[in-house]
Design a protein that fits this description.
It is a single chain. By secondary structure, the protein is an alpha+beta fold. The protein has a single domain, classed as Outer membrane efflux proteins (OEP). The chain has twelve helices and six strands.
């Protein structure tokens, strides 16, 4: 029967023991410089210049779940479903699980590597034939055929003298953390795209309502102009213009309906459903979401903490730095402590496995070094350091890109907000002008052309105002996305 535990005992002089202890104490002493996270001064001191031109902006930090600022239960439910059922997000989470498994595999390199074997064969064995030849010298004899057992056990452990294993473990963990940051960035994208699709669906619903009201007005004016023509009060050209304007207004409806359906289909897929399975809450929405309080913006330092893509870039940099350290450790000798025990029994009786004469064992270090030809190792180190430099430059570029996206989103949001305010004032004046023109037309003090012009102006400003409200809603979502919120659980 195999023993339950295995142990190696070998006489070792005191000096050798001390040397071995010192060798182990030196383990994980990497010759590479320790990793230091980069400091992005550009983001840390950023004050967001575009915020000065954006109205209703506060310096408060934006909440993690920014969509709740809209106080829209339908939007909250849609984003909750998207974060739970979106297929792209499921893929990102699977990548996180794989990266963590790879990190666990790398972590296992810190421990001794063990392997147990057990072999069984049937036939003539070398040692039996030697014994048979010695016993039957000069006679016609041969070794018998029988079963043979050969269990074995091997153990090896790399002394991490230069920190190679430690650096590889650090790189694997940094990769896993980078994948987690990428999944968090996907959560930000999914939340923002869901809010954008919902805002578009609602905004196109509002624009459809505006177009339908405009069509009703245009149709009524066309009918009135036709009656005036029948009485000989207006020319046929004026009646044709009124009918053409009604047809132009009617022609905008199919495009708006198509865009609205497209937004609803996108919203269904974002929430993990088939395109035809349109959320009822979004299908009934006719008013785009809008903030009822000042826009919380925060500062550049908070932006660095929030945006997961910057965290991903920093973790990629840490992984590249660790791999450069592992490549530098490859320039030095590696030491692997190992031992093995093997039994061989051909007596046909498994009980003979405990026979001390059938045991072969060994224990000792294995030193390997590519010296003197270190060209390949130096080339690998150069490539790893180049990857480290590229990762550092990529981090700096990502920080600048994050600042640019935030500034651009704020600039567009401020412009859209001011445009909407101006259109609201213009709409009030156009509505008053159209009311006066229609009153004067009924009284006979104004011809139909003047009414038609006033009507066209009112319809045009109504359409522009609805479109401006859509831009404001989408630009708000773009700012929230640039600020990096929404990934927190």
């Amino acid at each position: 029967m195999l023993p339950a535990t295995l142990s190696f005992r070998s006489p070792m002089p005191l000096r050798a023991s001390a040397a071995f202890a010192a060798l182990v104490a030196l383990a994980a002493c990497s010759p590479a410089e320790p990793y230091r996270a980069p400091v992005a001064d550009a983001a840390r001191t950023a004050s967001f210049d575009a915020a000065a031109s954006a109205p209703s902006v506060s310096t408060d930090a934006p909440p993690d779940h920014w969509w709740r600022l809209y106080d829209d239960p339908a939007l909250d439910a849609l984003i909750r479903d998207a974060l739970a059922q979106n297929r792209d997000l499921a893929v990102a989470l699977a990548h996180v699980q794989r990266a963590r498994a790879v990190a666990g595999e790398a972590e296992a390199e810190r421990l001794p590597s063990t392997q147990a074997t057990f072999g069984v064969d049937y036939g003539k064995h070398t040692d039996d034939q030697i014994v048979a030849a010695a016993r039957n010298s000069g006679t016609d004899g041969s070794a018998p055929t029988r079963f043979g057992w050969s269990p074995g056990f091997e153990l090896s452990w790399e002394v991490d003298l230069w920190g190679r294993v430690r650096d590889l473990v650090d790189a694997a963990h940094a990769d896993a953390e980078a994948q987690q940051a990428a999944a968090d960035a996907m959560r930000v994208t999914v939340a923002a795209e869901t809010a954008s699709a919902y805002a578009r669906a609602c905004a196109y619903g509002a624009r459809i309502d505006v177009a339908q009201r405009s069509l009703e007005v245009a149709t009524r004016i066309a009918a009135l102009t036709a009656r005036q023509q029948a009485l000989g009060l207006v020319a046929s050209m004026d009646s044709a213009r009124a009918r053409a304007f009604a047809d132009d207004t009617r022609a905008t409806l199919p495009t708006l309906e198509g865009e609205r359906r497209a937004a609803l289909y996108e919203l269904a897929v974002l929430t993990g459903h088939e395109p035809a399975d349109v959320p009822a809450s979004a299908a009934q929405c006719r008013v785009p979401p809008s903030l009822a309080q000042p826009f919380p913006l925060g500062d550049g330092a908070a932006l660095l903490r929030r945006r997961p893509d910057l965290r991903e870039a920093e973790r990629n940099l840490a992984a590249a730095h660790a791999r450069a350290g592992a490549a530098q450790a490859a320039l030095y000798p590696s030491i692997v402590l190992g031992g093995s025990v093997n039994w061989l029994s051909t007596t046909g009786n498994p009980a003979s496995l405990g026979d001390r004469y059938a045991i072969a064992w060994g224990v000792g270090p294995l030193i390997s070094w590519r010296f003197p030809n270190l060209a390949a190792s130096r080339a690998q180190l150069g490539a790893a350091r180049a990857d480290d430099s590229a990762a550092r430059a990529s981090f700096d570029a990502d920080v600048l890109r994050a600042l640019r996206e935030t500034e651009q989103a704020l600039a567009r949001y401020g412009a859209a907000w001011r445009e909407r305010d101006a259109l609201r004032e213009a709409r009030a004046e156009h509505a008053r002008a159209f009311m006066l023109a229609e009153r004067e037309f009924r009284a006979g003090a104004l011809d139909s052309l003047g009414v038609l012009d006033a009507e066209r102006s009112l319809v045009a400003v109504d359409a522009s105002l609805a479109q401006s409200a859509q831009r404001v809603a989408l630009d708000q979502v773009a700012v929230f996305k640039a600020l990096g919120g929404g990934w927190q659980p």
